[in-house]
Amino acid sequence: MFGNYLIGLREGLEASLVVCILIAYLVKTGRRDALKPVWAGIAVAVTVALAFGAGLEFGSQELTFEAQELLGGSLSIVAVALVTWMVFWMRRTARHLRAELHGRLDAALRMGTGALVATAFLAVGREGLETALFVWASVRASSDGTFAPLAGVLLGLLTAVLLGWLFYRGALRIDLARFFTWTGGMLVVVAAGVLAYGVHDLQEARFLSGLADKAFDISATIPPDSWYGTLLKGVFNFQPNPTVLQVTVWALYLVPTLALFLAPIGSGPSTRVKKQKATDEKADAEASAGPTA
Question: Is residue 24 left, alpha or beta, with left meaning phi > 0 and alpha meaning psi from -120 to 50?
């Protein structure tokens, strides 16, 4: 459940912060007339993400067992690839996310209502689709026959909405770079488990071989139905009897990805970001000064 809570919190907070930054910028610069198009774009993005998640869940139920495993395994690998890209991208841009979004919003304001709707839709929609896909894959991988995995995701999303609201109201200050570094590292660990589960699905679909080649079997020591077995599965997607291919893929993904993610990166914003930050500061100063006669 913790792993799914982390996914809901991390992905939901990204979307919440994007919404807060967009809305706060429009309010601060006196462009409240643009709020309706932005909210419309956000509503469409959320609707599309929910529809996508529902389509994955209910559409897969009509397939044969092997087709379900093939679809589940393939989408799990796609979800891991997207989430991996996302955590690296967010680590690089977390400090400058505000400037990036303000630049897009300024361009949309010059273009008109349709551009505002599209900007909000794209900014939130990308997060929503990634969240829907990874949540579906993770809940499927950590399913224990109860609603606990889904409940973890929902609690994470609700926490993210609350934190986003507090962030908007100024009651909460978040070190985005540090937050996304810590949660990103934990998310890489969760993603490694989802990837291993996806490989197992592909083996059950007979797309990959080696289903009978077990790396080890500690089911007697850590029964899957025990409280600690359930806990390990919920947090790390742990499996007591993985195949050799699962363990190999898990290690080949986790070790280099985590090492690269935690490695120091170059500091200092790009020229484009510096220019946008200067524009933001100018806009903030003009908004604080108020209209001139």
Answer: alpha
Whole-number Å distance between alpha carbons of 293 and 282: 19
Token code pair at residue 79: 């979800």
Sequence-ordered alpha helix ranges (H) in the chain: 2-28, 35-60, 65-93, 97-111, 113-142, 148-169, 176-204, 227-236, 244-262, 271-289
Angle CA 87–233–228, to nearest 5: 130
DSSP 8-state symbol, 243: B
Backbone angles phi, psi at 212, to 5 degrees: -90, -10
**pTM of structure:** 0.69
For the chain, 293 residues long, the average pLDDT of each consecutive 10-residue run is 72 80 81 84 88 82 83 88 84 71 80 82 80 79 66 83 80 68 82 89 90 88 75 73 92 93 63 53 55 44
Q: Which residues pair with 214 in a beta bridge?
A: 243
Query: Which of 16, 42, 50, 8 shows the shortest CA–CA distance to 161?
Result: 16
In 10 A of CB 278, how many CB atoms? 11
